[in-house]
Amino acid sequence: MIRYTLSCDHDHVFEGWFSSGADYDRQAGLGLVTCPVCGSSSVAKQLMVPSVATGRKKEEARMVIIEQAQKQAVAKIREMVATIRENAEDVGEKFPEEARKIHYGEADARGLIGKATPQEARDLIEEGIEIAALPILPDDIN
Q: Which Pfam families does the record cross-reference, listed alphabetically (predicted)?
């Protein structure tokens, strides 16, 4: 991986990571390298001090990339859970009962969230009722 210090035509400075110099050139040529501040695609590489990639530096770079990917994934999951919560009725402990009513046509179809024991969840699934657990994210339990 190559890290470039970049700047846009509005003097915003930022970093970009690329698999190679040719990868940067290709993406920049297609207008895919844009400023995260203003969105400008008029981006140029800045002078940088060369960095010798030792085994330790490669591992540190790999860990930074993994950490960034994990943060992005958690943010997307948080967004998904928030959307589900905004568009569903929280029925709490009555979840198994309400899910069955909807499944068997005794109540109008609607999004539900609530609580079920592991056994109640297994029973619902065995009855053919589609359910899914909402993930509990690290910050949710701290």
A: DUF1178
**Does any domain span residue 141?**
no
Structural domains counted in the chain: 3
Q: Helix (H, G, I), strand (E, B), or coil: what is residue 47? A: coil
Q: Measured between alpha carbons, how far is residue 21 from residues 24, 27, 33, 62, 132 in Å?
A: 5, 10, 13, 18, 44
CA distances from 1 to 4, 13, 21, 58 (A): 10, 19, 9, 8
Residue 31 pairs in a beta bridge with: none
Say what the pLDDT of residue 64 is.
Answer: 85
Tell the residue number behind the tokens 């085994």, with chain if given: 55
Q: Which residue has the higher pLDDT, 91 or 2?
A: 91
Same domain, 46 and 61: no
Task: Supply the range of the domain harboring residue 73.
Answer: 52-85
Same domain, 61 and 101: no
Task: Report the alpha-carbon angle 104-110-113, nearest 5.
Answer: 100
**Residue 87, both tokens:** 């568009």
